[in-house]
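User: For my dataset I need records formatted as: sequence, then structure tokens, nothing else. Please produce one.
Assistant:
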Amino acid sequence: SYATMSAQQKANSDYWIASEGLKAQSAAKTTEEIKKQGHEASSLHRTMERIQRTIAAFAAVYVFQKITSGFVSMIDTAMEYNATLEQTKLGMAAILTAQGTFSDSSGKALNATDSLNAALSKSSDIAKQLQFDNLQTAATYQQLVKAYQQTLAPGLAVGFSTDQVRKYTLAMVQAASAIGLNLDMLAEETRSMLKGTITPRNTLIATALGIRPEDIKKHKGDVDGLYNYVMGRLQAFGVAGTAAQMTWAGVVSNVKDAISMSLGEAFKPMFDYLKSEMLSLQNSLVSWTSEGPKLN
């Protein structure tokens, strides 16, 4: 028993008990630390899971937003394309009606309404041709259409047909692209070339080709002579104009136009439907009387 032990034995026994006690305390602490670390690891794991779920949710929302935004952008592009095409046809029809007289098969002049309808049919054909002409230039479809509309009146005034005006406009746009001319300046270029009011300041294309006012006036009254002369001189820019299509700007422009054309055709029924619904809404809100529009 402990009472009969020698002092040394008691000391050894006390040391052993104390040592075992320390070991037990250490083991308990280690167990507590392991439990604590396990709890922290479990908590960290749950936190990471929440973060992953949050990231996944944000990613799903982002992807959905991008898909939705892309679809909306496609619709916007298609609507804008069809609206531009519609406005182009109307604008050209107005110029054709103002510049010429439409007649029926018997040669009788059409009234104003029938003339506008005939002009709209004609402008629709021209607009379709310009769509494909545009793929031969580095310009956008809107730029080519604007150039054609600006050239149509002066072109018809000198006796060009609508098809000759179209080919002349195309050649001028190619020339402008070749020399890096801002297409917003093309209206003055095309008009001055046909009228013979050429100056180095306002007709860079004619000046670059060495065309003088007297060269144009020499063909006054000779429509075919003027057309052949101008188109012959513009051929000098034909190769450079084709090369401009192969530049990065030209390729990007043509790809965008091709996409717009495809989307425009695909969403044309939707465009017509939405326009019809908007007109119905307008008629439900406003009525027209002899005194003018009135709110319903």
